[in-house]
Amino acid sequence: MQQKNTGKIIVAFLLVTALAVVSVFSVLQFIKDPTPEQIADYKAENGIKDDKKTTDSKTELGFLTEEEKTTEKQTTEEITTEEKTTEEKTTEEKTTEEKTTEEKTTEKPSGSGDLALEDVAGTYTGKGTYTRFKVDFPDEMFEGLSENEIDAAMAMIKALEGTDFDIAFSIDEDGSWDFAMEDGLMNFEFDSYDFSKEITELEDGGFSMKMDGKEEGIDAEAAFNGAFSGKGDNIKVKGSFILSGDMDGANVDLIVDYEAELTDNADEDEEGV
């Protein structure tokens, strides 16, 4: 009799254990891959309403496998790192660009210290490069043009940055000057009349000036510098022309680095007259 009772107790224990194992397995199975019925029961028991589309039942219920959690974390970190990197690059590029402009605007070019204004008077020809060229046109400038024509025009303008083109620079003994850029598209030309400022003297063989232009469609700030080297008919000049502002309705932001050599000496012209 006692043995039979012992057997019943053992059988009962095994049944309870089996049920417990099945129950645990069911919970684990629900967490890993819940059936629609299990999800419905879970929502009903916990008061979850179907007020939005279920795109991922496991995610919605807060159940993710370790692999899914790791993937989600890595994706978030990658996006954050990418956004941070892009922001840092943009800030760095902007800072470098501003620094470049500031350096070119404030630098004091140094050339041959014994050269005076009358020594360098004449016409110079050489090459210029747009190290920066940005332009924003008003909408009315594109009236009558198709979208393809506008795209083609903007592509040509964008292609100017970084390209070389012909420049001509002339300076008189009284300090008046002219700077022309033959880039084949915009062909800008600026002079001391546009900015009401002459080169008064050379300091260490160079000049540097900041200017405001409000003449003939120009409402802009500019900086112009150059350094002369050599003597007599073998004088060269190297410098930058910077402009930012309105040019006949278009907003222009440019930096031109140039190098040129004397091709027509002012003294010789006077002697030949």
Describe the protein's architecture and organization.
The protein is an alpha+beta fold and 273 residues long. The protein has a domain at 111-272: Porin, CATH 2.40.160. Helix content is 42%, strand content 29%. It contains 8 helices and 8 strands, in the order H-H-H-H-H-E-H-E-E-E-H-E-E-E-E-H. An 8-stranded antiparallel sheet has the order 4-3-2-1-8-7-6-5. Strand 5 (206-213) and strand 6 (218-229) form a beta hairpin. The longest helix has 41 residues, at 66-106. Mean pLDDT is 75; it is low at 1-32, 52-64 and 269-273.
Topology:
Elements: H1 2-32, H2 36-46, H3 57-60, H4 66-106, H5 117-120, E1 122-136, H6 147-160, E2 164-171, E3 177-182, E4 189-191, H7 192-195, E5 206-213, E6 218-229, E7 236-247, E8 250-265, H8 266-272
Antiparallel strand pairs: 1-2, 1-8, 2-3, 3-4, 5-6, 6-7, 7-8
Low-confidence stretches: 1-32, 52-64, 269-273
User: Over all CA atoms, what is the radius of gyration?
Assistant: 38 Å
Average pLDDT taken over every residue: 75
Form type: elongated
CATH architectural name of the domain at 111-272: Beta Barrel
Distance between the termini: 145 Å
N-to-C SSE string, H for helix and E for strand: HHHHHEHEEEHEEEEH
Global structural class: alpha+beta
The number of E-state strands comes to 8
Output the CATH topology of the domain at 111-272: Porin
Give the strand order, joined by hyphens, for the main sheet. 4-3-2-1-8-7-6-5
CATH class group of the domain at 111-272: Mainly Beta
Q: Can you count the helices?
A: 8
Strand content: 25-35%
Share in helix = 40-55%
Largest sheet: 8 strands, antiparallel
